[in-house]
Amino acid sequence: MRTAQLTRNTKETQIELELHIDGGEIHIDTPVPFFSHMLDAFACHGRFGLKLKARGDIEVDPHHLIEDTGIVLGRALKQALGGEYRGIERAGSFSFAMDGTLTTVALDLCGRPTLVWALQFGPHPIGNLDPNLFRDFFKGLADNAAAALHVHCLAQDNDHHLIESAMKGLGRALRRACQPLPGNQLLSTKGVIDG
Predict the structure, then answer these.
(1) Would you list the domain boundaries of the chain?
(2) Parallel, antiparallel, or unpaired: how do β-strands 101-108 and 91-98 relate?
(3) Tell me: the pLDDT tens digits for 12-27?
(4) What is the pLDDT of residues 27-77, one digit of tens each?
(5) 96, 172 in Cβ contact below 8 A?
(6) Is residue 131 within 8 Å of residue 1, measured between CB atoms?
(7) H or E segment to which residue 150 belongs
(8) Which CATH class is domain 3-177?
(9) What is the rounded distance in angstroms from the CA atom of residue 144 to the CA atom of residue 75?
């Protein structure tokens, strides 16, 4: 059973998350509707079971809630996959097209946290949310899953499609990285995953 159940309680956020790598119910409950929609898209296209209840000081700024959700999701991913990332493909990528937007997401569960973020947004919010905050979500996930994560825009028609293609691409790329291998093989010429 490749699952994890985690909570995070701080003065800024309260998060309960349950992740099922091999599928299951999706139920997303946050006070930021566009963020909830994007998490639902991520889980749907990754074919992950994801239950999330997140609250936070969004009256100050949604930043804490979005970043901390990425942190908890990254930790849950690592825990659900056994920490060492044995027995999985480890790396995956996907280019997701949404109308006039094309975004590539590539990742390696390599033990060395890195985020390369090559998305740029206009001056307007999406559903009252600054789209630049999604970088904090991706960084929290990459740091806590110990992943090298690249997100690149190849074509763009609007910011909504850009974020949505990135989130769906993340789900698809992670699905490929999580694909089981025969036995408990570790895909590393060094024989270990760093970190």
Answers:
(1) 3-177
(2) antiparallel
(3) 999 999 999 999 999 9
(4) 999 999 999 999 999 999 999 999 999 999 999 999 999 999 999 999 999
(5) yes
(6) no
(7) strand 148-155
(8) alpha beta
(9) 5
